[in-house]
Design goal:
Elements lengths: L1 H28 L15 H39 L6
Helix pairs in contact: 1-2
């Protein structure tokens, strides 16, 4: 039972970060009226913004891929220490 709480304690920040990224992605998808804002833009500006959004998506996914396995294994190893029973891998 303790291992579930330990695992939730380690996974909760990851889920919160993913939720924040999803909210930011939804805000970025809201389009502005081109007749009222952003008329004077340099050439290729819309392509630059699309590339920037894709770059942020890739960085977020890489961060999750990099930090998720160590977090999982640290949660499992700390649950082994707290419960004093080895978990099968």
């Amino acid at each position: 039972m303790v291992s579930i709480f330990v695992l939730l304690a380690f996974c909760l920040p990851i889920y919160l970060a993913l939720a924040i990224l999803k909210v930011q992605e939804r805000k970025a998808q809201q389009r502005l009226n081109p007749l009222t804002k952003g008329i004077f833009r340099p050439a290729g500006y819309s392509l630059y913004t699309q590339i920037d959004e894709l770059r942020l998506d890739v960085m977020a996914k890489v961060a999750v891929i990099v930090f998720l396995p160590p977090t999982y294994f640290s949660a499992m190893s700390s649950s082994d220490v707290l419960v004093d029973t080895p978990t099968p891998i």
